[in-house]
Amino acid sequence: MTSKFKIAYGAGVILLAALAAAVLGALVLKAIGASPLDTYVTIFTGPFKDVFGITEILVRAVPLILVGLGIAIAFRSGIINIGAEGQMLIGILAATATALALPGLPRYLLLTLVVLAGAIGGGLWAGIAGILRARLGVNEILSTVMLNYIAAQFYTFFLRGPMIDPGELETGSGTPQSMRLPESAILSHLIPGTRLHTGLILALVLCVCVYFFLWHTTFGFRLRAAGAEAKAARYAGIHVPGSLVMAMVLSGCFAGIAGAVEVTGVHHRAIENITSGYGFAGIVVALFGALHPAGIVPAAVFFGLLLVGSDMTQRSAGVPANMILVLQGVIILCIVSAKMYLNNAYTQERAARFFARFTAKAAPESTKDGGQS
Amino acid sequence: MTHGFVYNILLLGVPFSVALLLASLGEMFNQRAGVFNLGCEGIMCMGAFLGFLPPYFLKTGPLAPYGILIGFAIAMVAGIILGLLFALVTVTFRAEQGIAGIGLQMLGWGVAGTLFRHYVGGVTGVEGLAAWAIPGLSRIPFLGELLFNHNPMVYIAFLMVPASWYILFKTPWGLKVRAAGTAPRAADSMGINVNRVRYQALMLGGAMAGLGGAYLSLCQAKMFADDLVAGRGFIAVALVYFGRWNPVGIMGGALLFSLAQSLQLSIQVGGIKFPYEFAVMLPYVLVILVLSLTRKARMLGPSSLGIPYNREMRY
Amino acid sequence: MRTAAEPIRELRLEGITKRFPGILACNNISMQVSRGEVLALVGENGAGKSTLMNILAGLYQPDSGTITLNGREVRFHTPNDAYAHGIGMVHQNFMLVPNMTVTENVALGLKEHHRFMNLDLKSAKARIMEVSEHHQLPVNPDAHIWQLSVGEQQRVELIKTLCFGAQLLILDEPTSALTPQETDDLIDRLKRMTGELSIIFISHKLNEVKSLSDRVAILRHGAVVFNGQTADHTSADLAALMTGREIHLPRNEGLSLDGGVVLQARDLHVRGDRGHLALDGLDLELHAGEILGLAGVSGNGQRELAEALTGLRRVESGRVEFLDADMTNRSPASMIAAGLGYIPEDRHHEGIVPKFSVKENLVLKDFHTVKFSWWVVLKQSEIAHNAEALKASFDIRCSSTSAAGGSLSGGNIQKVILARELAREPKALVAVYPTRGVDMGAQEFIHSQLLARRRAGGGVLLISEELEEIMNLSDRIAVIYKGRILKVLNSLDATRERLGLLMAGVADE
To answer: Which chain C positions have a beta carbon within 8 Å of A229's beta carbon?
Structure first.
């Protein structure tokens, strides 16, 4: 089997998966009477019409990168984290509380504390699922999903009660949201007139950190060994439950940071529906980016585009916002289906032999052609 | 607490358990055959939405009396189709089941929401299924009202418990399902088509999850909303662990959850001061507790749960 | 289905070829079996015997080649097709559903008894009793499989295959988990069955081949290298044909180096996975500079003993002492740090991380030491150097040390594990089935490395089910039975018969 074939094979599988995803999405679009082609064109070209659109893609990419990194750490370590949504919410609560409690601190100190608070909040929340898995063998998928529901209720409880903006109570409108963060706790803009903030730089720096952590430190070695084959890791003296908890906590930290960055960079106060599904989209980003920081960045930009683009179709073509969930679900199904064909040496070799039959028959003809020309 | 208070909790609790019970029994067949289907949530969403559509559109006209029946049928068909899709992904393509389940959940939830926004728009009620008192039995004092004066789906769901037990333990198909989930290679060597059995189990599970979803919109809420299912599909999966892959245990778990839910409702109605959010949280916390306490049970589960079968894979 | 099969007069395989990724498992193989004949299929591990028989049993599809039965070509797409033609296989890893009863297991395959809504267990049971009496294979049809011993499970496998109407019986290494006496008993039973059945018997134990088979076919690297009458050839001839060269497995030279005790277990009680007491008061002493062989039928606590010694399994009561320190219930990491080496049973999942590269696998136990890391940062170049050095000295065959460990052949994976463990110069080494499933060349190499470790003053606990291996290498031999050491023999006093009786739980004297 040649390396050329391997590349062609990989590309073929990915193309087929992408095609399958596009067709399934198109079916749903047809069902609501929208034109699939127009919708896809709007999604993929609409955001590029002006600078604002392009920066919006990056604004969406920032939390996606951060959540995706966290999820990649967890998946690589053998524990599945579906709870980024809830971890973000808890991170936002912690970050907002910190910023509101210490408005007088110098800017950089406060921002550091706020992001740290977010990380700790998200990490602890994820840690619950990690410990339950390590100690009691509780399926982490189920527990993180449940913790999402619980976190959502916590979040609204705090926004309606202890953390509600006193202004809302005075005017009597009662919108569940916190006070605006102090100016010193707000990330500055990268490009004036857009929403693009310095969180992007943080996200990219953390990408490099995660790469170094996973592949060049003993901690990363431990986590990856436990994730790749827990039994062998245990037999080699690695404390697998400990590494699961550590991976989950780290994973939650990243979701928490994403939350802190989102509140300090974009919304400037804790509001309802603040996560806009980043926690789930981050799973798709991590999978699409092959659980590697170098893949997660382009994947996050791609999904940023998808998010901005589908917002536009909602406005222009009236395609409901839920459509993005459909696309994400379909993409997940296609990625995991394609994975077996990508990684499995057995199916790869079968395909190689299948195609070799055609090339073997075609070979003499092609040499003849070559001789003539 | 008065006699009436407890009685009301029980009276509410029995019908509340139906959606969970149906979905969970279906999931039991999936898991017994070796497939872990977290997409149950997504299938329930689709079932709830599609089940709701026929009575919504057929408010008048010759088919109006059959709207609900058609709704249940469509929900089951949708469940079977989604079960087939999941089977294609996890059995034929041998994808990782946990993540694929989340994908199916997003898909089902997303499609239901998208179609709902487009075809219905806002929250609208439907008539729903009326209670049908079983003649005679419903006259038994106390118990009659409690057990024999519900909508017909309640009776069907509870009859499914012994039926599932019989299918699983007393029919050749049940034997095949159990073998496919525990020792697929052995089953294969005896000429059982493991993947076909898994496909069948996923179709059955899908049909039951769809039915459970339709029960929510047609009998329980009598309307549809985006977040109607609200994690019941995931709870159904957790109940399978709680019930130790056994129909009777699963029924106990479903009743436990529905009683907790009706207790929470009664507390709110009773005016006891308790933050609303914490009341809503209760079932989810309960799931985590239940999962934490069933550690031992996992040893009894199907040993090949979650592992795709590939005859020619050597390691 | 069962009744429909016509008698097998002659079965022919012609030009069977089958590939797996990276391996040509069967290369143009042809052979035939006639009614009432016993064909022994002999070859080293990895020679392609099991693959070939899985093709015959309908589990694998050949890439090319034909199977003809009584002169007509047949195709087996599933095991059902094979059974329908009267071919049944008893696999090396028993194909039984552990949490079902014997009857349920048989009923699973008896399709003609399946009714839509009714499982006919009664007629399945009747069929079992009929076969059991006819072939004198006693069995309790209501027992759950997990309750049965290995020997009983094998009987169930045989009965099951016969119940499905097999006339040609394929037996894949049927004696590998049996004591010598159970083996003799099985061979007697099989001989009696040849009146009505044909048998293909896979083995690499030549004495069994000699005593049971009429004809023998030898496979090497997926091809038939010999096919002839068993009676015409000696065991030595067959052995040479099997390996393709003269193999002289190294032997223990006998000069016992009397070192002190390095590792010992005292009154050890340990629970198995099912919660039963797998070790029930076990005492064992391993000295420096000796190889202590642990003989026993698998499932008598070997696995639990190895795991308890290495800190992987909790000890209920009793003590584990290593280098005179009490190490009971210490973590695996502290056992490793103290200098205990371990070659685990399942090399693909316990020995290496298959997705990790060879070089990463070679530092799996040492990546955090100062040699391979600075503070928390890995020294990649040091790790690569280490791998190159070990690759050369242990003759690890891989395209590069960056290749995934799982992509290597079984023998080479075992060499990676051996290299990692021996490079750490362990004071004591627990080796569980170290040569299971590897070819003779690798076996020779592994044996000489274990002996070298002994010469260097390390203690080696060799757990094996191959009596020959144990008798060749050990200074002393301990026999384990039902979680206790029944007896410890000097290897000079040990004979096959004596060990066999002890393995069956018959204490001598």
So the answer is: 349, 352-356
Question: CA of A87 to nearest chain B CA: how many angstroms apart?
Answer: 16
C376 contact A CB<8A: yes
Instruction: Report CB contact under 8 Å: A232, C368.
Output: no
Tokens 């709902």 label which residue?
B116
- Fold held by C10-243: Rossmann fold (3.40.50)
Give tens-digit pLDDT for C60-99. 888 889 999 888 888 888 888 888 888 988 888 788 998 8
Chains that touch A (3 or more CB pairs under 8 A): B, C
Domain extent, residue A338, equals: 1-32+321-352
Chain A residues with CB-CB distance to C331 below 8 A: 237, 239
A-B C-beta contacts closer than 8 Å: 150
| Domain contains A14 | yes
**Where do you find CATH 3.40.50.300 in chain C?**
10-243, 259-339+428-509
How many residue pairs bridge chain B and chain C with CB atoms within 8 Å of each other? 74
Domain match, A20 and A63 both: no
Same domain, A325 and A273: no
- Do A246 and A347 fall into the same domain? no
Position A192 in a domain: yes
The answer to whether the beta carbons of residues B37 and B237 sit under 8 Å apart is yes
The structural domain count of chain A equals: 2
Give the lowest-confidence range in A205-209, A254-258, A327-331, C116-120: C116-120
Q: Searching chain A, which residue's CA lies closest to the CA of residue B98? A: A141
Query: What pLDDT is recorded for position B295?
Result: 67
Q: Are residues A141 and A209 in the same domain?
A: yes
pTM of the model: 0.90
CB spacing of C351 vs A232 below 8 angstroms: yes
User: Is the domain defined by C259-339+428-509 classed in CATH 3.40.50.300?
Assistant: yes
Does residue A369 form part of some domain? no
Query: What distance in Å separates the CA atoms of residue A184 and residue C39, rounded to the nearest whole number?
Result: 86
A81 and A132 housed in the same domain: yes
Contact C108 B192 (CB under 8 A): yes
Counting DSSP H helices and E strands in chain A, the numbers are 15, 0
pLDDT in tens, B97-147: 988 999 999 999 999 999 998 888 877 878 777 777 777 777 777 777 777
pLDDT at B109: 94
SS3 A340: helix
Half-sphere exposure of A177 (CA within 13 A, CB side): 17
> In terms of domains, do A20 and A104 share one?
no
Give residue A226's pLDDT. Answer: 95
Option in A146, A333, A346 nearest B100 (CB): A333
Q: Residue A135, Cα to own-chain centre: how many angstroms?
A: 27
Of the spans A145-149, C29-33, C150-154, which averages the highest pLDDT?
Answer: A145-149
Is the confidence at residue A367, as pLDDT, over 50? no
User: CA A292 to CA A298: how far, in whole Å?
Assistant: 11
A175 with A300, same domain?
A: yes
C348 CB within 8 Å of a chain B CB = yes
Q: Please compute the mean of the pLDDT values over residues A129-143 and round it to a whole number.
A: 91
| Same domain assignment for residues A173 and A263 | yes
Residues 213 through 232 of chain C touching chain B, CB cutoff 8 Å: none
Contact B211, B27 (CB under 8 A): no
Tens of pLDDT, residues A251-284: 999 999 999 999 999 999 999 989 888 999 999 9
* Residues contacting C398, CB < 8 A, separation 6+: C358, C391, C407, C408, C412
Which DSSP letter does residue C87 get?
A: E
Structure tokens at A295: 């893949």
